[in-house]
Amino acid sequence: MKKHIPNAITCANLFSGCIGVVLAFKGDLQIAAYFVILSGIFDFFDGMIARLLNVKSAIGKDLDSLADMVSFGVLPGVIMFQLFKLSDYTSAYLPYLGFLITIFSALRLAKFNNDERQTEDFIGLNTPMNTLFICSLPFIGIDYPAVIGSTILLVSITSVTSFLLVSEIKIFSLKFSDLSWAKNKIKFIFLILSTVLIAALQFAAIPFVLVLYITMSALHFRGVTPD
To answer: What is the pTM of this model?
Structure first.
């Protein structure tokens, strides 16, 4: 029975992502964002539970990627598609550009499954972090309508995030082999600063968290430890 527990959690990730996709197509982008968070929670715990129960399997790995493709691939593409429709675009076909995020998310997940360099950390931006960033845009647009009103800005965001997904940029994983401060100082500092930002700005903090994540990952892999 215990070998099915991680897969059940992964399926919960998939189910949550499916609900998010339906909500996004209906235009309920902010509610869809909360289902992204729920999917992220399930995605975090399925692997943890599999390791704790020592029931990791090839099927579980493939199922995890398939679930992630919906929650962190299709869903952000739909959200960007809807954001383009809310912008000042002039072409009826331009909103479909948002699905570049879906395509590059698929490429990212395929690379991750076959890249032996990514057993502990990431090469390229991970799909959950990218999806959180995309999901933050409708919330930022409440106070700053120009963010989701500018087609040029949305095209730029789509292009940059698509590149980051398949780039060779090293990004640290938030999975901890132990909880010692000495070995995980940069990760702990990142989590503390991110918590402060999110507490102060909520979803509007996510772009800053993304920049912080990439910056501190660069420090981490260069062996620079902040005092």
So the answer is: 0.89
